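User: What would this chain look like folded?
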Amino acid sequence: MEKILEYSKTHHTVEPGKALRMSDALSVGDGGSQGDLIIQVVKHGSVPAGFRIVDNPTDQDKQLVPGNTTGSRHYLESLDTCVILRPAKWNHDAPYDEYDGPLLHCKEDTTITHPTHGDVTIPGGMCVSLHYQRVYDEELKRERRQLD
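Assistant: Here's the prediction, encoded as structure tokens.
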């Protein structure tokens, strides 16, 4: 049986092949990552500007990271455990170059799976925002004038 680890009050990364359960003791701003998917606790409330609730989600809505590579296979184990809110620009079939992903309002324990990273379980009653890791851009290394 896999050992279930708990997120502490600091940022943690899921170890490959090990499941991890976020602690109920986490507060707004705390979180961790499942590979390149950053999971952060946010305050419960209404739908934030620029987001929309996914009504009648389908299996396609289980995927939390756009793309078709192994790295983008961060999936909800079930659509019944949470409410998904997506950025208005989100489109499953088009390139997505934003850093902000969906928000999840977890009605009960919600698990995000991945084929190479460990699964992450978010406790029921918690609300999290998902973000995508940035890629370092060689262009940013060039010299340029400081702008005031």
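Confidence is low (pLDDT under 50) at residues 1-11. If you want, I can go into more detail on any region.
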